[in-house]
Amino acid sequence: MRFFRLAALSLLVFPLGASAAQPAAKPNVLIFYLDDMGWAQPGVYGGKLAPTPAMDAIARNGVRFTDGYVSACVCGPSRVGLMTGRYQARSGHDANGNRDGRELVVSETTLAQRMKAAGYTTGIVGKWHLGDTNEKFMPASRGFDYAVGTLGNIGEGTGPSYFRGNEKVEDLPGAPVTSPVYRDQAVKFISANRGQPWFLYVAFNAVHTPHVASPHWLAKFNHLEGRVKNYAANIAEADEAIGVVMTKLRELGREENTLVFCISDNGGASADAEMGGLRGRKWYVWEGGVRVTWMAQWKGRIPAGRVSHQPVIQLDVLPTALAAAGVQTQPAWQLDGVNLLPLLEGKAPALAPRELYFRFGVQYAVRQGDWKLVKASGDMVPMLVNLARDPGEKTDLAAQEPEKARALQALFDQWNATMSPPRWEDRRWDGHEQHQIDKRAKMKGEGTKRKK
Q1: What are phi and psi of 197, to 5 degrees?
Q2: Using one digit for the tens of pLDDT, what is the confidence trace for 207-218?
Q3: What span, in angstroms and rounded, lies between the C-alpha atoms of 384 and 375?
Q4: CA proximity to 314, closest of 27, 34, 28, 26
Q5: Which residue, 340, 259, 324, is CA-closest to 298?
Q6: Rounded to whole angstroms, how far apart are CA atoms 165 and 149?
Q7: What is the torsion angle, in degrees rounded to the nearest 10, for the CA atoms of residue 27, residue 81, residue 240 and residue 323?
Q8: What is the pTM (predicted TM-score) of this model?
Q9: Is the distance from CB of 343 to CB of 295 less than 8 angstroms?
Q10: Strand 63-65 vs strand 294-297: parallel, antiparallel, or unpaired?
Q11: Is the alpha carbon torsion for 345, 350, 353, 359 positive or negative?
């Protein structure tokens, strides 16, 4: 019965006559959102553990940001920011949640809803993590015409882990190895909708735990052992999926008419994640938790092979996608992201000055230019760093630059006063950084052995 339900849904979303239509004037928008991938994991960022030719190609064909951010150091809130173009703190969605009042509130309008209103066919293939206790929170009720994937993290909690449309299902053929599942679903969506403008959000479970991969990918990393072997294969298989989707775009002659983003939802979580010397990881507002892989491609519009040091954030995706679609954003929407197209296309040398804000429980940070004020645990005195000189956040300059520290603290306090209080908090990580660093270091020593 599940097969027939999926087939029926596919007929609704994949119209039989679409192939006869002419290419749409409006560009397609494609987002690849990786899960828990370290800033330096892709080869183009210096990663060496696993080859990532598909992600590297997006950077070569477009722009790679060295200072790309997400507004949250954990999965759920990061997706709130991506889907709304607004700080998740506006709705008090500061920590991970999926159920029991911890869903994306229905008063927020998603990118899918805005693209649908602009005449786009919309799809999500992959991880949702924004609510499933009621049909109104499910992807098909939040603007997605086609929806298939995981409700949250694989095997998390009790009950079904997967969805098709607004229906929760106990299994997804191929799971828990989901990258090839999402690959195939994305290719079908793109192929069937090639005659009309579409928006597709491909949200990988990789490289979040469980680190699982197909046998043939595991075999490619037989020189590694244990956890690190699984992690490397997990990365490589996700990259392969991206490559297959991009190849389909080229085969259909749609690559030049598609704006592509490739971003990680937060910093690396695994002890094997490649962080490029950044301090901290997922769960922290240090750079390692919020600075991420961030790339964009639009052949013919974005000059190829560029590297930008401008600070950008996932909140910028929504206004940029809407601008590409010809949609005029409205002040009443209170968006926090900005349209990056002038920067991406080389028409503007830099973005207008702005601050980037981060809030997670008792942790917070604000970046202004090269300066960052960061408080990464409950008992920590806020630390002032200059990221241009000290990207590893090792040296506290608050005593040398007290006025700058006070100014940044005032900026955060003013911003925070305009946000909603957290609707719930996760205190598991408050003030325990050194314990976690020691624990991960021990795990890494045990888990990265090579075969002799």
Answers
A1: -70, 140
A2: 999 999 999 999
A3: 9
A4: 34
A5: 259
A6: 9
A7: 10
A8: 0.91
A9: no
A10: antiparallel
A11: positive
Contacts of 366 (CB under 8 A, 6+ apart): 355, 356, 357, 358, 372, 373, 408, 411, 412, 415
Q: Are strands 162-164 and 146-150 parallel, antiparallel or unpaired?
A: antiparallel
Rounded Cα distance, 71 and 81, in Å? 7
φ/ψ (deg, to 5) at 255: -60, -40
Secondary structure string (H, E, C) spanning the chain: CHHHHHHHHHHHHCCCCHHHCCCCCCCEEEEEEECCCCCCCCHHHCCCCCCCHHHHHHHHHCEEECCEECCCCCHHHHHHHHHHCCCHHHHCCCCCCCCCCCCCCCCCCCHHHHHHHCCCEEEEEECCCCCCCCHHHCHHHCCCCEEEEECCCCCCCCCCCEEECCEEECCCCCCCCCHHHHHHHHHHHHHHCCCCCEEEEEECCCCCCCCCCCHHHHHCCCCECHHHHHHHHHHHHHHHHHHHHHHHHHHCCCHHHEEEEEEECCCCCCCCCCCCCCCCCCCCCCHHHHECCEEEECCCCCCCCEEECCCEEHHHHHHHHHHHCCCCCCHHHCCCCCCCHHHHCCCCCCCCCCEEEEEECCEEEEEECCEEEEECCCCCCCEEEECCCCCCCCCCCCCCCHHHHHHHHHHHHHHHHHCCCCCCCCCCCCCCHHHHHHHHHHHHHHHCCECC
Tens of pLDDT along 288-332?
Answer: 999 999 999 999 999 999 999 999 999 999 999 999 999 999 999
